[in-house]
Amino acid sequence: MKICVVGCGAVGSLFAANLATLDDVEVWAYDLAQEHVDAINRDGLRLTGAGEVIGRPRATTDAAELPPCDFGIVATKAMHSEAAIGATAHAFADGCVATVQNGIGNEEVLARHVERVIRGTTFPAGKITAPGVVQWDVKGDTTFGPFEDKPAPFEEVQRLADACTRGGMPTAAVADARGPQWRKVIFNAATNPLGALTGLTHGRVCERPDLRRLASQLVTEGKAVASAQGIVLDSDPEELIDYAARPEVAYGHKASMLQDVEARRQTEVDYLNGGIAEFGRKLGIATPTHESIWALVKGVEASWNQ
Amino acid sequence: LRSEPKRVCVAGAGVIGSLFAGYLARVVDVTVLTRREEHANALNEGGLRVSGRGDFTSRVAAATSPEALPEPDLVIVASKGGDVESLAARLAGHWPGATLMTVQNGIGADEIVARQGAWPLLTAVTFMSGTRHADTHVEYVLDTATWIGPSRGTTVEDARAVAALIDSSGLKAEAFDDLRPAQWSKLIFNATVNTVAAVTGLRHDPHFAALDEPSDLGFLVRNLMDEGKAVAAAAGVTLDEDPWEMNVLATQRGHRHAPSMLEDVQAGRPTEVDMITGSLVREAHRLGIPVPLHEAMYSLIKGREASWE
After folding, report:
1. Which of A22, B73, B115, B205 is surrounded by the fewest CB atoms within 10 Å?
2. pLDDT tens for residues A70-82?
3. Nearest Cβ partner for B219 among A211, A289, A291
């Protein structure tokens, strides 16, 4: 089986390194960072922290080198999906492509370029600490399911989930993967921007009653948009918010969007609050809080060019 | 006020208070009530220098307690919004013959003062600006007017008398029969533009009026102003200017103004959000008008302030 990880940042590296430990899987890693790619080809891809792994995927910055693959796993930042799948689609002419990206709307982008798409949500997290080296911060589950508009056959979804699980990334194949995805999107959209706009860690956002209420308003609007599509959340995002606020979980964690804002990098707000607001608009569900937060984060991004 | 005030006390000598004290001392006796002893000493020793649009030094008598100062006809309460309550408490029981005038951003400063004594009250909103270079040196930058209206126990005649005095000193002032339409227009404008600028880091520029893409800030700005207008309507106030039109005009002028709350946030200083957005939200709650977006902006600013701790 050949699997290509498209976008070998922190999350992509977790999949690539773990899958590369399997004898029956040939793993390719496509990424634009030449130093990272060179280090992987020279020394292997090393994970530290929550798991110690050295995998040896074949890495390249040149999409033309990719062989025909059974599976793609797209792990770029959401705003880079279009360019990444546009460059690599030829490798998946007979294969299936999964997304493990943040936010909503990624499957739709993939479906414009490939025929068989897998909806995915993943919770593991980490960060690149040096070329070829990724610190694995948080272990967690992944869920895959066929994307409704251009579905991958369910046996193929199961085959990919099985490979990930055997490789050390526990993954479930389900018929409807929208529930876990919307739970994560709602969680991220309710908490990430509040950290980004205030500078507070997740735990400090949650211990301020008015900000915690604001997060709940965002959750409530998000649930209404999910429920209007017939999506049943696999659990309540509110529980996840309170769980993550515990000192031993993620009290001191700076949301990725806060890290982006501090580094003046474009955020994923278009695919989080923006995604919920756009779905809400199509479905006739009002999302005034998501729209406001979306505009504020876009305003922060605009202020860097002022 | 029985007649034109002859003796004025400026309570709180930040930028605005220093400008009033420096200019008014050219035409009447001015005393200054300060919080810090060294501030009062410096003023007593060296006077108060005004630069910028003016260039002179005024003699003022300063002290940290009202007992040490003669009773004035007019007290200009010029502290930061958050300090009005403690300042008024220091004045409680003193100067029963004086009229007190508040000049803070937002609304409700006169009501806070009213709870501390039976003085006649004027309410004012000032658009002038300056820079404080030292305890004894203030630079006069923007020579826009101070608007004055009656509050408790005063009439427009009192407002006119104070406006005439301020005018004669070299500053600009205007009296209104009812200040609330102007005050509310400014409050709604400020509660929106200041908080959006402070949260995003954007100076007041065309982003604030953009309505092209769904994520454009203009929609949020307009929604915040609509919430504010609903509160004003419920309070029985007819606005003198439409805040949205004020916003569009200001962004078209090409001058990218940095609202004071943005400057406060960039400097890591506490903001005036309690007086500005806070007063709008308190009024909304009193009147039963929902203002979820202003509450959200308030929470975000308070969260930002907490992030510096």
Report:
1. B115
2. 999 999 999 999 9
3. A291
Residue that the structure tokens 């200041």 belong to: B194
Nearest residue in A to B224, CA atom? A292
H/E run at residue B243: helix B243-252
The pair of structure tokens assigned to B201 is 């880091």
Backbone angles phi, psi at A38, to 5 degrees: -60, -45
Q: Tell me the one-letter amino acid at A174.
A: V
Question: Does A305 score more than 80 pLDDT?
Answer: yes
Cross-chain Cβ contact A197/B299 below 8 Å: no
**Cβ burial, residue B248 (10 Å; 0-12/13-18/19+):** middle
Q: Is B256 on the interface with A (CB under 8 A)?
A: yes
Assign B172 to helix, strand or coil: coil
CB spacing of B217 vs A278 below 8 angstroms: no
DSSP-assigned states of every residue in chain A: -EEEEES-SHHHHHHHHHHTT-TT-EEEEE-S-HHHHHHHHHH-EEEEES--EEE--EEES-GGGPPP-SEEEE-S-GGGHHHHHHHHGGGGTTSEEEE--SSSSHHHHHHTT-S-EEEEEE--EEEEEETTEEEEEE---EEEEE-SSSBPPHHHHHHHHHHHHHHT--EEE-S--HHHHHHHHHHHHHHHHHHHHH---HHHHHTSHHHHHHHHHHHHHHHHHHHHTT---SS-HHHHHHHHTSTTTTTTPPPHHHHHHHTT---SGGGTHHHHHHHHHHHT---HHHHHHHHHHHHHHHHTT-
**Given CB atoms, is B254 within the 8 Å cutoff of chain A?**
no
In order of A29, A64, A78, A274, B293, the CA distances from A36 in angstroms are 10, 18, 20, 31, 44
Q: What tokens does B220 get?
A: 């949020």
CB pairs < 8 Å spanning A and B: 97
Predicted structure pTM score: 0.84
- How far, rounded to the nearest angstrom, does the alpha carbon of residue A168 sit from its chain's CA centroid? 18
List the one residue out of B55, B52, B42, B54 whose CA is nearest residue B13: B42
Q: Do A298 and B214 touch (CB under 8 A)?
A: no
| Confidence class for position A137, pLDDT limits 50, 70, 90 | confident
Q: Do residues B156 and B150 touch, judged by C-beta distance below 8 A?
A: yes
Kindly report the CA angle at B174 between B171 and B179, in degrees rounded to 5?
130
The mean of the pLDDT values for chain B is: 95
Helix (H) or strand (E) holding B181: helix B180-200
Tell me if chain A has a CB within 8 Å of the CB of B303: yes
pLDDT of the residue at A113 = 98
How many Cα atoms occupy the beta-carbon half-sphere of A237 within 13 Å?
A: 27
Residues of chain B with pLDDT under 70: 1-2
- How far from B114 is each of A227, B80, B151, CA to CA, in Å? 51, 17, 10
Smallest CA–CA separation between B201 and chain A, in Å?
6
